[in-house]
Amino acid sequence: MDIVFNWDHFYPLYGEPDGKHFECWTMLGAFAEATERVEIGALVTCNSYRNPQLLADMARTVDHISDGRLILGIGSGWFEKDYNQYGYEFGTAGGRLDALDRNLPLIKSRWAKLNPSPRRDIPVLIGGGGERKTLRIVAEQADIWHGFGDAETVAHKHRVLDEWCAKVGRDPLEIERSAGVSAKSPAKSAESLYAVGTRLFTVGLTGPDYDLSPVRDLLAWRDDRNRA
Prior knowledge:
Elements: E1 3-6, H1 24-34, E2 39-42, E3 45-46, H2 52-65, E4 70-75, H3 80-86, H4 93-113, E5 124-127, H5 134-141, E6 144-147, H6 151-168, E7 176-180, H7 186-195, E8 200-202, H8 213-227
Parallel strand pairs: 1-2, 2-4, 3-4, 4-5, 5-6, 6-7, 7-8
Helix pairs in contact: 1-2, 2-4, 5-6, 6-7, 7-8
């Protein structure tokens, strides 16, 4: 299944710092209406920006609009400008991770109470590579882990995640491994990541003039590998 991700920021991360930009979850509702087959989600939602019970309801609603195609991508947050400009307390990296750890069970418990319930067990994707907290949270609570870096870096994170799975009693094969590929050489990057266990691949596009050639190259690599 192909996936279309956006991100959860209030300002561009690249280009003009105060350039044109829209809110993540409102956009996901539009994605749900405008598409029919692809899964959709944020890479990743910032846990700090919304009450977890509200976020659960928002996710359930978009899941219904999309007929069960939503992935809840979520992370602890890091872009300080968003926090400062919108009045959120930035705090510390450790504190933000603790909040993510607390909120994920609240999100899942709210899904169990909502009427109507989500169309499916909404997959939870956690982004981030911290080895002491983030990967432990992934081992306990995520269906997908999204990491960053070259194949050697990602392979190391996989080993750490597997160690956390052993500690918490989780089968590491239950967690899909995701990583971003290089837009300059998507096929080469994807092949090296595939060799170390990555099975979900993302490639980032920067607007407003989107160059889709990296996506086409990645899809061609994907199709060739599936035919092999």
